[in-house]
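FORM 12-B: Structure-to-Sequence Request
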């Protein structure tokens, strides 16, 4: 009898847990303070497969010839991925794919340029290359002045938290000193003005006021009046609170979920337990009656 009572008590407890088990699930995006007091925060990255779809280059067309720079490169891509453009295997600019397409301005080398677009995910995993587009740059200034001024960087995308300095290494080469450099960080603040007495690697630095993704455009002009261009992607890390590059603020979603599957599973057990208890009770009564008759 005690075993059945224990069984009934356990099943009743399960039923109480299930019926009272409406579990609130809270997903706070940009609204809660983390880490919260008395809590432990864990953060991790689970690598997924790299991008499988290549970007395309729609503009310029294969075989096109240019006499001035910068030129516009645009095409189709997977939304949210970073698009890097390479000319003759040298990185010449980057942007974020938005609404299935991208567009940016790049510099060209004198003569033939083999252009390739390559996509990267948030883990910097590369996808397949686009088809090669060959264009030609007939550079009259190169013929006149010799080595052309160029800009490049080891980083296509870099980020820092709002309120903290984002420092970016830039390599300046070629041309004739001195150089005048402007860096437009894409957040509406006045462009930085920098003067360099000779070609070298140097750092530019900026502080974003809010989270978001920004197009950075750097221009260098040498003493001959020849200019070089480089477009990069700057990131103000953290939750976007609204306004940055047109991104809207996030909201808090509270969802209550009743655990119906465990409930459905426990109901048959309750019925069986009730039937067994009832049968045992009748068996006990009959046993006592038979003993009384004897």
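FORM 12-B RESPONSE
SEQUENCE OUT:
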């Amino acid at each position: 009898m005690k075993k059945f009572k224990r069984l009934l008590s356990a099943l009743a407890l399960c039923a109480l847990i299930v019926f009272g088990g409406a579990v609130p699930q809270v997903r706070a995006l940009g609204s809660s303070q983390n880490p919260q007091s008395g809590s432990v925060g864990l953060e991790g990255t689970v690598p997924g497969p790299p991008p499988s779809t290549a970007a395309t280059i729609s503009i310029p067309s294969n075989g096109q010839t240019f006499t001035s720079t910068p030129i516009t490169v645009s095409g189709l891509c997977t939304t949210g991925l970073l698009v890097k453009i390479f000319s003759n295997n040298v990185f010449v600019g980057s942007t974020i794919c938005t609404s299935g397409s991208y567009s940016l301005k790049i510099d060209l080398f004198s003569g033939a340029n083999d252009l390739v677009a390559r996509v990267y995910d948030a883990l910097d995993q590369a996808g397949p290359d686009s088809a090669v587009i060959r264009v030609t740059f007939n550079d009259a200034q190169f013929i006149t002045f010799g080595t052309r001024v160029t800009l490049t960087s080891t980083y296509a995308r870099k980020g820092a938290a709002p309120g903290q300095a984002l420092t970016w290494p830039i390599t300046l080469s070629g041309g004739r000193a001195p150089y005048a450099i402007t860096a437009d960080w894409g957040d509406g603040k006045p462009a930085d003005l920098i003067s360099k007495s000779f070609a070298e690697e140097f750092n530019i630095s900026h502080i974003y006021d809010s989270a978001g993704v920004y197009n950075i455009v750097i221009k260098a002009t040498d003493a001959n009046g020849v200019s070089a261009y480089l477009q990069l992607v700057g990131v103000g890390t953290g939750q976007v609170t609204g306004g940055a590059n047109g991104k809207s603020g996030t909201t808090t979603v509270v969802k209550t979920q009743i655990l119906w599957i465990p409930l459905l599973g426990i109901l048959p057990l309750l019925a069986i337990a009730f039937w067994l208890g009832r049968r045992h009770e009748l068996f006990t009564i009959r046993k006592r009656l038979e003993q009384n008759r004897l």
